[in-house]
User: Fold this.
Amino acid sequence: MAREVVGTSKVPVREALQRIGTGGLLVFETNRGARIPVLSVGDAIENATLRRAVEVELLRQAVPKLNVVDLARAEHALADPTATGSVTAANWQFHRALYRAAQWPRGLAITEMLHAAMAPYVLLYLQSLAGSYPSDDERRALLEACRRGDVDAAIDLLRSHLDRTMHTVIDFLRSAGTADHAER
Assistant:
């Protein structure tokens, strides 16, 4: 009956749910369907720590190899975050544009997975905690350091950006009494 009301088949609905799941906004459970994931302090800490470690090394490898196209892609992601469909997609496009030059495909794949896992936290940060303005400024400064080829400054800016964002999210989750079950 739902098919008659909505006017669509199960296939496009399933595909849409899988795309949402890829962004970390749904968790699929075998024979149970999908649910919205619980944001936990422990998961945030784990994902942020892994992301920081991998992204810093990718950036270290990439900055000397960045070209005009890489920098233009990063700038485009900053200029119009809605062009890619979502704020989290634009965030990934920005970081991906900078890291691709490292030519570390496994590192880039791991980072993409971590960005997907962090998407709900990034959305919380940007929408509920008004984090877009400091983040935009930090990403612009990071892009400028990359343009100058200043590896040390770029790494410092990336670390600062990732740390500030995650400390803000973790503090919020703790103050909201969010589950610490996975905290390490």
Summary: The first strand starts at residue 27 and ends at 29. Residues 41-175 form a domain with the Four Helix Bundle (Hemerythrin (Met), subunit A) fold (CATH 1.20.120.530).
